[in-house]
Amino acid sequence: MTREKQIIKVSIVWIITNIVLVIFKAIVWFISNSIAIILDALNNLSDVLSSIITIVWTKLSNKKPDKEHPYGHGRIEYFSALVIALIVLVAGLVALKESVLKIIHTEKATYSVYTLIVIVAAIISKIILWKYVKAQWEKLNSGSLIASGVDAISDSFLSLSTLIAAIISMIWWFSLEWYLWCVIALFIIKSAFEILKSSVNDVIWTRADEKIINKLKQKILSYDWVLGVYDLILHNYGPKNLIAMAHIQVKDDTTAQEIHRLTRKISNDIFNEQWIIITLGIYACNDTWEYGKIQKELSKILKKYKTIIQMHGFYVDEDLKTAYFDLIFDFKEENSEEIIREIKSEIKKAFPKYEYSIVIDTDFSD
Hints:
By secondary structure, this protein is of the alpha/beta class. Helices cover 63% and strands 15% of the residues.
């Protein structure tokens, strides 16, 4: 079964479960006159809407690439998580508003044993549903399923608060449900903001997953002739559509044919094993005794600057009398250009016959 069909299957299970809960809670509301119960039912109804959004947007995200969208439509899935998060947020805000109003204007609800049975059934079903969705989102890496899973566990807490309030009301005739709902509503709002933050990060593109980056680097470094891997960038065009770029360092006497074979082998293996399309650039390396002295002196100079994270791509072109290397600065550094001028001045004093070309790289990945 494809990833798309699996997500749709989970969403359909979600829809059916929530429709059943809505029906039973509506019956309980009719018997007990509990506004908490009907709000809980309306919350389940919003879950149905969330799942419909998940199905529609999953279909859209799996459309094939076209001329206007050559990278595909995978990022649509992140927008679905955003919409679901907004629905969860609205549900939390409505619950908070109604709870505060009912605390001010108390309204007594009538509960029975049958009411409690339905509420307990709702709690158990939501916990089971949460575990099921959680297992699926971990397997499928679906933002919309994560949002639905968080919503499910939030619903179980809501129903639990209603259950506790109902028991207290039946024993001591004291109405507590709205105070509990205030606490749970705040929990839902917090969860919604966390989902929103995660979804927005996916849309605007954040730092690549450390596990994926480390796995890619280890794979690339496992090949003969590869002396280092740098500038690894991972672009995410959907959970299953990753495109990477990196520089590999090889000896400067490696032939074009050897480089062609090497980069083809690496890119093909990574695609077949990890389903990641990777493009590789080349850093030439010459570490003879004379050039090694320049690199060693550079290392001493760079240690003075705490915001320099890494130097790489060092190469000396003897014909052009130019030494090339790249530097990665901490994002907090605001005077990188000034530091570059200082480094050039110091290394020039030690090795005056060369010019120095320094490129400032961005710390895209660990």
